[in-house]
Amino acid sequence: MKKLSARLSAVASLVKAGSYLADVGSDHAQLPLYLISSGKISYAMAIDNKMGPFLRMKQNVEAAGFKNQIYCSLSSGINEIRTDIDTVVICGLGGILTCELLEQHPDKLENVEHIIVDPHRDLRAVRERVTALGYYIEDERMVYEDKIYYSIMLFSKGVPPKPYTETDLCLGPVLRQRREPVFLSFLEEQRKKISDILNKNLSKEARENYLAAYRMVANELKKDA
Ligand SMILES: C[S@@+](CC[C@H](N)C(=O)[O-])C[C@H]1O[C@@H](n2cnc3c(N)ncnc32)[C@H](O)[C@@H]1O
After folding, report:
1. Distance from Cα 94 to the centre of ligand 1, integer Å
2. Pocket of ligand 1, candidates 2, 45, 49: which has the most ligand atoms within 8 Å of its Cβ, to mutate?
3. Strand pairing report for 20-24 and 87-91
4. What does the pLDDT read at residue 3?
5. Which terminus of the chain has a smaller tally of CB atoms within 10 A, N or C?
6. Domain map of the chain by residue range?
7. What is the pTM of this model?
8. b/e per residue, 60-76, with b = 16+ CB within 10 A?
9. Segments of the chain with pLDDT less than 50
10. Cα separation, 120 vs 110, whole angstroms
11. Is the CATH number of domain 6-161 3.40.50.150?
């Protein structure tokens, strides 16, 4: 079994055992192959909308001898997921595209209990828009790999225990609660990045926005001081 990256391992750890999983943007089908061969799940759809990745994942699935457990689909987003799929994974895509792929088909989400996402941008929008589809953030993981901080979110059907604040949406309600060292390092890096930007020439509006972001991050860090 090919070893997963730290990021994909964190995604795999958020999958509930026995899930019926659709991995959207599966590329090499690495995640479903890992989950099936480890015995955590017994059925998955590996979905990609481009011919190159589709052929690659099909080849990998066949070579591993899992073509009865992993169905490879050349399709976009959740357009063609089966009705028994209860978990949708969308990892490694932009945040806005991630939201759009889910919002386009509310009917397809009827039986989907869990959505796991690892958006590489626009995290605030993802937290807000996926929550608006009838989910809450059950768990979050932050991983630092190849000099990048990744935030991986597990949404589950239901409503948040209390409405998310602006800081929750920007920084992650579960990450804020857990305050793991990787999250605190991320905050430090953000504070430094924003501070460097504030030292440049900015329009009044941009300066105000960056100042607000700086205050949010600095306040969050203060809790540990
Ligand atoms: C950067 S790779 C991510 C691979 C893997 N999910 C991961 O996180 O390592 C993104 C993959 O998503 C596929 N993709 C992009 N838009 C898609 C869409 N609308 N539907 C399905 N797959 C899509 C791309 O072809 C590509 O193979």
Report:
1. 10
2. 49
3. parallel
4. 85
5. C
6. 6-161, 184-222
7. 0.96
8. bbeebebeebbbbbeee
9. none
10. 26
11. yes
